[in-house]
């Protein structure tokens, strides 16, 4: 019985050692969000206008943007939340198309 268990462990270890890493499959887009908010990759935020990207995204849902945090390092993100239009606002937020 011990030999079968030992052989099984050796085979399992060989399978795990020979399996390729899955890091390239778990790719995250530089801009991702939904109706409650989203994230913008820090390198994209340095190249493009992150504020305008977030405003346009939240305006699709009839909401305004509130920035939550910035991680200014490699692999960091700019996070934001989409909030409902504050009380007293006469109109919905504008979405720029250009």
Description:
The chain has 98 residues and is an alpha+beta fold. The protein has one domain. 34% of the residues lie in helices and 26% in strands. The protein has helices at 2-18, 42-47, 50-59; strands at 31-34, 37-41, 63-70, 77-84. A 4-stranded antiparallel beta sheet has the order 1-2-4-3. Strand 1 (31-34) and strand 2 form a beta hairpin. It is elongated, with a radius of gyration of 23 Å. The termini are far apart.
Annotation keywords:
elongated, 3 helices, 98 residues, single chain, 34% helix, 4-stranded antiparallel β-sheet
What is the fold's blueprint, element by element?
Blueprint lengths: L1 H17 L12 E4 L2 E5 H6 L2 H10 L3 E8 L6 E8 L14
Antiparallel strand pairs: 1-2, 2-4, 3-4
Percentage of residues in strands? 25-35%
Secondary structure class reads alpha+beta
Q: What is the averaged pLDDT score?
A: 81
- How widely separated are the two ends? 71 Å
Oligomer: single chain
> DSSP helix count?
3
User: What share of residues is helical?
Assistant: 25-40%
Give me the Rg, rounded.
Answer: 23 Å
Main sheet: strand order: 1-2-4-3
